Amino acid sequence: MLQKKLATPLGTVTVMSDGLNLTGLWFTDQKYYGSTLPKLSLVGDTPVFGRVADWLTAYFAGEQPAVDLPVRPSGTSFRQTVWTALQQIPYGEVRTYGEIAAVVSQQVGHDVGARAIGGAVGHNPISLVIPCHRVVSGTGELTGYAGGLKRKKSLLQLEGCLQGNQERVVLEKN
């Protein structure tokens, strides 16, 4: 496993790769930092890190880059299902924990509570690329981001989900 630090406008991130895939991306001060980093990993470089750096540059420039990076997060099958659901949230949109729970419940064949979804979202090992910051409470409040609510707010402002100093998004009612 290889790791490298990259600078972003919201702080330094550590990226991790198995040599082919992005397996981790954490702000260095976030909750659960390096949760899937092996005890022994080398500081180094791999082509995927260059692709991640380019993606981060485009993302923070507001260019809405496609996520065409090979990602391979490590986690339970339930967490994998949740992280796959997160990858379906388009740039500039949000979903509630309850909406993600409904999607995951359909996929796993039984009801899943929003609290269980919150646990899986919070342990996402590939921040930004797997957009856990796009999940908000059922009332649209900004809650539960391992990278910190200040960063979540900045990310949602960048994506056009928030204006000014808003602390919540206006949820569309279907």
In short:
The protein has five helices and six strands.
Helix and strand topology:
Blueprint: E1 2-8, E2 11-17, E3 22-27, E4 42-43, H1 47-60, H2 77-86, E5 95-96, H3 97-108, H4 114-122, E6 135-136, H5 149-158
Helix pairs in contact: 2-3, 3-4
Counting DSSP H or I runs of 4 or more residues, the number of helices is 5
Largest sheet: 4 strands, mixed
What's the SSE pattern?
Answer: EEEEHHEHHEH
Please state the overall shape, judged from the principal axes of the Cα atoms. globular
The spatial strand order of the largest sheet comes to: 3-2-1-4
List the uncertain runs.
none
Terminal CA distance: 44 Å
Strand content: 5-15%
List keywords for this structure.
alpha/beta, 174 residues, two-stranded parallel sheet, globular
Describe this structure in words.
The protein is α/β, with parallel strands linked by helices and 174 residues long. Helix content is 32%, strand content 15%. The protein has 5 helices and 6 strands. It has helices spanning 47-60, 77-86, 97-108, 114-122, 149-158, and strands at 2-8, 11-17, 22-27, 42-43, 95-96, 135-136. The strands form 2 sheets. A 4-stranded mixed sheet has the order 3-2-1-4, covered by helices on one side. A two-stranded parallel sheet has the order 5-6. Strand 1 and strand 2 (11-17) form a beta hairpin. It is globular, with a radius of gyration of 16 Å. The model has no long low-confidence stretch (mean pLDDT 91).
